[in-house]
Design goal:
Length: 93
């Protein structure tokens, strides 16, 4: 590779790296922070409490070790309860 080709490659690389840089807009404001509402926090907490009860193995993986000795209810009534629980969560959300 000749010096001329090396300089050309270096120049192209520098342009590629620096081409995306632009001066900061001093008039730009910081992104607006979205504050969670109390209503959503309440829904989320209730949903997770219910979800952990229905899926104790998932709860354990989330660090809820009070569910260590429990298994999910895979009986027909247990599965129906899970379906109704999820339907209610969707309606509440």
């Amino acid at each position: 590779m000749t010096i001329k080709n090396l300089l050309l490659a270096t120049s192209i690389a520098a342009l590629a790296v620096l081409g995306g840089c632009a001066p900061a807009d001093e008039n730009a404001s910081a992104p607006e922070q979205i504050q969670p509402t109390t209503q959503w926090s309440t829904f989320r907490a209730a949903f997770l409490d219910e979800y952990f009860q229905v899926n104790p193995t998932f709860a354990v993986y989330q660090g809820k070790h009070e569910f260590d000795s429990q298994l999910p209810d895979w009986s027909k009534p247990g599965l129906n309860y899970q379906i109704k629980s999820r339907q209610q969560a969707i309606a509440d959300a």
